[in-house]
Amino acid sequence: MPPPTLLVADDHPLFRAALIQVLHERFAPLQTLEAASAATLGQALQDHPEVELVLLDLAMPGARGFSALLHVRGEYPQVPVVVISSNDHPRVIRRAQQFGAAGFIPKSAPAEDMGAAIRAVLDGGSWFPPMAAERSEADAALAAKLAQLTPQQFRVLLCLADGLLNKQIAHELGLAENTVKVHVTAILKKLECYSRTQAAVLVKSLETEPEAAP
């Protein structure tokens, strides 16, 4: 059997290097890949179907809160995602779980906990720190709505949230403008939104809360 391939997605090169060192110390042999933005994360997953686990920082260029997590879970449902974040507020942890993460590791966690969490997920389980936040029915409903979107529709939705016009979205994603119009219509219907502004507000709700005080 070939060694497992893990993808570390974080925009801080020093943290990526430290995490990769932990991985190689605890999971030899092992292949690791790196991504520093939402765009390079998507490209790496497209280029490397052998990836067995994504270790994902929520705060990366091109990501809006939980958008990268939702995108990976929607486009690559067979690949588990462990969120690694400096924001370990209970509600952030709970939302990551409801939006499809298989685990959540605070960046402040000791290397032993990181290793245990990653091993649990590689073995088909999950790992989350103790949480005080209650399950949110609103988040569950939002996750269900977003799960109806195709990967391309999700990309169009993020462009909508950035305030881009159809023509600009077409240029950004390499689509025909009429195709964008069809996607926008489908997105609004699936999300039960009456306007582009309402859809943009929905995307804003994916953003994480301010970092918890130390």
Q: Secondary structure elements and their pairing?
A:
Blueprint: E1 5-9, H1 13-26, E2 31-35, H2 38-47, E3 51-56, H3 67-75, E4 81-85, H4 90-98, E5 103-106, H5 111-122, H6 137-146, H7 151-161, H8 166-173, H9 177-191, H10 196-204
Parallel strand pairs: 1-2, 1-3, 3-4, 4-5
GO molecular function: DNA binding
Domain HTH luxR-type: 142-207
Modified residues (4-aspartylphosphate): 57
Share of residues in strands: 5-15%
- Counted beta strands: 5
Described by the principal axes of the CA atoms, the overall outline is globular
The neighbouring-strand order within the major sheet is 2-1-3-4-5
Q: Whole-number radius of gyration?
A: 17 Å
Structural class: alpha/beta
- How helix-rich are the residues, as a percent range? 40-55%
Structure, described:
It is a single chain. By secondary structure, the protein is α/β, with parallel strands linked by helices. The protein folds into 2 domains: 118 residues, Response regulator (Rossmann fold), CATH 3.40.50; 57 residues, Winged helix-like DNA-binding domain superfamily/Winged helix DNA-binding domain (Arc Repressor Mutant, subunit A, Orthogonal Bundle), CATH 1.10.10. It contains 10 helices and 5 strands, in the order βαβαβαβαβαααααα. The radius of gyration is 17 Å and the shape is globular. The C terminus is likely disordered.
Q: Main attributes?
A:
Two component transcriptional regulator, LuxR family; EvgA-like; 10 helices; Rossmann fold; 2 domains; Arc Repressor Mutant, subunit A; DNA-binding; 5 strands; globular; alpha/beta; 12% strand; phosphoprotein; CheY-like_superfamily
